[in-house]
Amino acid sequence: MFLDILIISVVTIAAWYKTHTHIHHLQQISYKNKNYIKWRFGNYTKIIRPHEVLFIGGVFLTQLTDTLWSRLIGLLLILIDVYFFHLIRTAYAAKKKLKYTPRVKRLLVTNAIQLIGLMTLTFFMVTWASVILILALYLFGFITVIASNLINKPMELTINNWYYNDAHKTLAKVPNLTIIGITGSYGKTSTKNVLNAMLSKDFNVLMTPESFNTKMGLTRAIREHMKPTHEIFIAEMGADHVGDIKELMEFVQPSLGIITSIGPQHLDTFKTFENIVNEKGNMFRLLKTGGTAFVNVTDSNIVGLPRRSDLNYVSFSAQPDGNIETPDFNIESISVNSKGSSFTLVHKPSGKKVRLTTQLLGRHNLANIVAGAAVAINLGIPMDRLPYLTMDLKPVDHRLSIRRVNDHYTVLDDAFNSNPVGSRMALEVLDQFEGNQKIIITPGMIGLGDRHYELNKAFGVNISKTCDFTILVGKHQTRPIQDGLEEGGYNPAKLYVAKSTQDAFSKLSEIVKQDDVVLLENDLPDTFNE
């Protein structure tokens, strides 16, 4: 009896330990069971690992044999399997580690209760039934994680609603706060950071940190950082499902709104491009009466949004030619290189012009600065002060930021910013750098729905025009890029398809030479590892 209790205890602890990996994946998919199930069964080859044959054999020996030695050998096999699992888990460091938030801790407790209860049942079941249950709880432990998430849902909703209400109370204590909402398929985080850096020199500004662009992200920013002395709150608003922007707009009720772009991002969840346009359009549709919408006229999808008679509209563009309409803010005399950019900002209503210089790289960052300038002037900052606001703007880490590696080669880090527009702009910036080889490391783009192949293939064609060596991460997910490279006449000897990120950087260390320039374009979550 003691050995039975020991075996079941070991298996229960092992299953619970493995639970952390399942919860880690669930956390990266925002605790959404539907998306997690889709991902899990879309990666069915990862459900059972080769080393888990040891666990299966161990269970058979402990449950279906009677001799002490055979059962002890079975227990040893189970422990060896758990050890292998531990080695693999610790050897390959996660790009984004599991955060042991209160929600994760509650999931772990709920899952532990399930495992203990179900494992206890094995003492009262016929032998074969207990074997099946033990194997299922360990090999398919993600099922209990899904169940735990479902069980906890009412509690999580109650807790979240308390936090939301508390955030509303905090906002109510700052009645004169100007709230600026920013959304877009691409560029919203960069625009938010540019706007924050510019406005902070004249106002007391709070912005949502990092990519805190969900309702809970906004709630945390408000509850943890909002002070009565704040004058401006910049709220980044993300969306990957219909209804997300509407929910966020109703939550913080901004009076100023910017849509940076509308493009084919998250098509796998939005299903249609029309849904994306409509959802992003909620930014303008739900602005406070008397508020101001900042319209990027280079994006026809934004220009085509219906206009309200009770809003003010300020148009801007970072493209001097081919605009759909003549904007209120435009630029001319553009100079872009690997050191930064300079351009002349033109304010049509006043006829004033000012020369601006920035360290930010890429033409797409010019649109971010023009949007920031339009908001600054709308808030009363004089136009002749803008050069001071833009001269020391710094790139956000992993969004076309630059670093030198041991004075050997340059890294152009765009790991957090891969999309059809951003990837094209990053290649344009790479092409402007002076150096020996131009190398790219990328796993491609995701979330593009039925346009995944088309857009990644186009990315491959663009790579073939710029890069001297290409390292792709993942044989299957980068197939469209490989086809694009082939179509572009790329030399196969200059292409390496890595099995993992670690493999990619090992290859880089072999080929990189003095003064090469390396572009890191996108860094997929661990859930997308092949």
UniProtKB/TrEMBL annotation:
Residues 398-520 form the Mur ligase C-terminal domain. The keyword GTP-binding does not apply. Pfam families: Mur_ligase_C, Mur_ligase_M. It comes from Fusibacter tunisiensis. Residues 182-376 form the Mur ligase central domain. Keywords: ATP-binding, Ligase, Membrane, Nucleotide-binding, Transmembrane, Transmembrane helix. Its EC number is 6.3.2.10. This is UDP-N-acetylmuramoyl-tripeptide--D-alanyl-D-alanine ligase. The chain crosses the membrane at residues 68-88, 108-126, 132-151. InterPro entries: Mur-like_cat_sf, Mur_ligase_C, Mur_ligase_C_dom_sf, Mur_ligase_cen, MurCDEF_CellWall_CoF430Synth. It is an enzyme of class 6 (ligase). One of its GO terms (molecular function) is UDP-N-acetylmuramoyl-tripeptide-D-alanyl-D-alanine ligase activity.
